[in-house]
């Protein structure tokens, strides 16, 4: 089994998440080669073949061109699987590669199974097992589903170039909105999710955060509804956090949220739904009405 | 025979449900506490087209049907009984009689502003001594040139506080009882209209219930609705349609309470099991649900009959009676399921319990509904 | 200008899911269905563009599935789409993303759409493949995960949402396909008058057999609940008892109460 792993590079830096691809390949017991549109000055810690195109010449985001480069690497390497991260780069590029190669694509793999793959569905509540109908397949793996592994070593670089194709002009990056609260340094985070019901209930969650000496966090729907400011958002489009204690209040646990908090040392979730996906990462799932339980816990802590 | 909503009705139902979920449910408790539906919500409901659902598009209505209207009031009332009755009283009791009994000129003049929600409508029938017996109307009018001059007073006027457009009933000769009554379309911003008070109530506290005095209120003759002396017939016909609205409000309140009670019965654990595992609770849930579904079927049938131009007097009386009694029953049982928590204001059940009661009383008490039903049975 | 927006009807994600008889997808009895949330952003953006361009534009909404998907289609019409295409398919859940894209491509191929909007992914299946695959099959440019969209003079400027809240800004010339992310806009409510107007809009029904030419490239073999992590403790019961238990756990397992 041979895999071609598609690494990621942004704003002049190799992204750490690239190493999760090696975690996946390791579980598969596969040979690995890496593809990257990056820079020779930022080589990954990997001793195998690196198909490298220059990001300055090819652009960090230019899917038509990157597709040509990947196809070139596929031809040279002849892999059984082309493996992407399920990320804004990966889910954008992978279907283009799969379409060109006329092969199966399986998205957001969370586990390898006998003869196929397990993927999430229904907002992370359920799972499906998927089998590719073609021998060769394009895979995208869920962020955080496979532990990152740094293989170590220095790669043998095979340089790739491609003629620029121009359906898209990249105009640049816009920074994330100002972060007033730095949740990444907080030891305790108590987060509010849609399950708190309404904006008026946010202070109840904030009061528990205060009682535990921590910060208020929030899931995306709560921020989108403007119940809580964006700088409190935990998740892939907010902040990734790893406090000593994370308390999820009325958060069902969309994958994007889980990816942002599952590295917390200890997770307590309060949810009415025993089957909520948050239960998968929680050390303790308290099955209760948030608006009954949280004030009671805060009151008890005050004693 | 088909008991399923059409796709168009389902689209409408889910659109209104989304609107209510986002715009009304989060502020329902505040509406009750403040005794006031915020103007911003009235504007949003108007923009959504909730204020003229079943009137033709040429008069600024949405052009839908009576069943759509019933669904609108039901969905809104699941979250907020006050907002439900605002729509119901406005649509059935003001837009309704103008559309049914108005001349083409009157429809063109008054309906667009009512259907768009620019003016909120109300129905001025009840007086201190004329409730179920409208024949006792003591508000009097007389003609002076091209005007009618009205003197008297009305009480318990839903939506009165908005001072929009009213359908006002007055008599030219008390001795003629109900045959002396005529109906007028009145701009309540006119001189001679005074609000005596907005009542403080047990339930539907966000809804205005207004007492008015009329002191030489001058109304142009072209504002006479229907013929002189036919006001009582207009009132009775209007209330027929209105009963579908109130029944839908009651149904919504019942469904709102039931949904919460059902969910709570699955969450709440006592003696190491969810309380819905106990037969005592199961029986309550079964009784509640059966009454809700019975009411719903009767409301939808009455609406369907009206849409199909059939005589729906008996069905509208039955649906109002059934749904309002379902509402008081279901909210009472919901509170029992919630136990002590239900009695606490944070859980909304106590509000629904308070909101439900009026549905047995207004737009014809349930005793009057029984009179209507039995009269038709024995006719 | 011709605009297409592709939508999917999905179950309410708050529902409890049970496998269907074949065990490869959920059983749809007792589920309430609605328009995929990402597609609502797509419809809203398409309608805004339609309004921007006025009557020189025509906006078509397309959905594939059984009769019930017409409810989602009618909602899109009520939000402002001009006409609709319903590709009738009672077995849509058995098609893979490549096939779904190929069905749409077979319809759109000779229609000359200048702009195609899709959701970034569906809430139920979440493969994020259909939009991009469709663009590839049609040979048009494509940008995914949009949180910003502007159109002027045959070109769009799009903001793509990247990890960590950073945005990548790109410019593309039509024909182009974009996939829409949460937060792109606030979808409007279909108002009652517009629901009425939608009743008069044309819905063209096309049996899927007329459009499906591709074999599936993946097969679903199972639909199931996630394996429980095992180590997680589930606490249920009276709130007062729960609070005491959690306090005990906080003292024992964490340092936050010390």
Describe this protein's structure.
The complex is a heterotrimer of chains A (303), B (379) and C (258). Chain A is of the alpha/beta class. Chain A has helices at 18-28, 55-58, 63-77, 90-101, 202-211, 220-224, 255-261, 278-281, 290-302, and strands at 2-6, 9-10, 13-14, 31-38, 49-54, 81-85, 104-113, 116-121, 126-132, 137-141, 156-159, 168-174, 188-192, 215-218, 245-249, 266-271, 284-287. Helices cover 27% and strands 30% of the residues of chain A. In chain A, helix 5 (202-211) runs parallel beside helix 9 (290-302). Chain B has three domains: 7-115, Butyryl-Coa Dehydrogenase, subunit A, domain 1, CATH 1.10.540.10; 121-231, Butyryl-CoA Dehydrogenase, subunit A, domain 2, CATH 2.40.110.10; 233-378, Butyryl-CoA Dehydrogenase, subunit A, domain 3. In chain B, helix 9 (313-338) packs antiparallel against helix 11. Chain C is an alpha/beta fold. Chain C starts with a strand and ends in a 5-residue tail after the last helix. Chain A binds chain B through residues 197-200, 272, 287-289, 291-292, and chain B through 26, 263, 267, 341, 346.
Strand and helix layout:
The complex is a heterotrimer of chains A (about 300), B (about 375) and C (about 260).
Chain A: E1 2-6, E2 9-10, E3 13-14, H1 18-28, E4 31-38, E5 49-54, H2 55-58, H3 63-77, E6 81-85, H4 90-101, E7 104-113, E8 116-121, E9 126-132, E10 137-141, E11 156-159, E12 168-174, E13 188-192, H5 202-211, E14 215-218, H6 220-224, E15 245-249, H7 255-261, E16 266-271, H8 278-281, E17 284-287, H9 290-302
Parallel strand pairs in A: 1-4, 1-6, 4-5, 5-11, 6-10, 7-10, 13-14, 13-15, 15-16, 16-17
Antiparallel strand pairs in A: 2-3, 7-8, 8-9
Chain B: H1 7-24, H2 28-34, H3 39-48, H4 66-79, H5 81-101, H6 104-115, E1 121-124, E2 140-144, E3 147-158, E4 165-171, E5 181-187, E6 193-198, E7 209-220, E8 224-225, H7 231-267, E9 269-270, E10 273-274, H8 279-307, H9 313-338, H10 340-343, H11 349-357, H12 366-378
Parallel strand pairs in B: 1-4
Antiparallel strand pairs in B: 2-3, 3-7, 4-5, 5-8, 6-7, 9-10
Helix pairs in contact in B: 1-4, 4-5, 4-7, 5-6, 5-7, 7-8, 7-9, 7-11, 8-9, 9-11, 9-12
Chain C: E1 2-7, E2 9-11, E3 33-35, H1 37-53, E4 58-65, H2 69-79, E5 83-88, H3 97-108, E6 115-119, H4 130-138, E7 141-152, E8 155-161, E9 167-173, E10 176-180, H5 192-199, E11 203-207, E12 218-224, E13 233-236, H6 239-253
Parallel strand pairs in C: 1-4, 1-6, 4-5, 5-11, 6-10, 7-10
Antiparallel strand pairs in C: 2-3, 7-8, 8-9
Helix pairs in contact in C: 2-5, 3-4
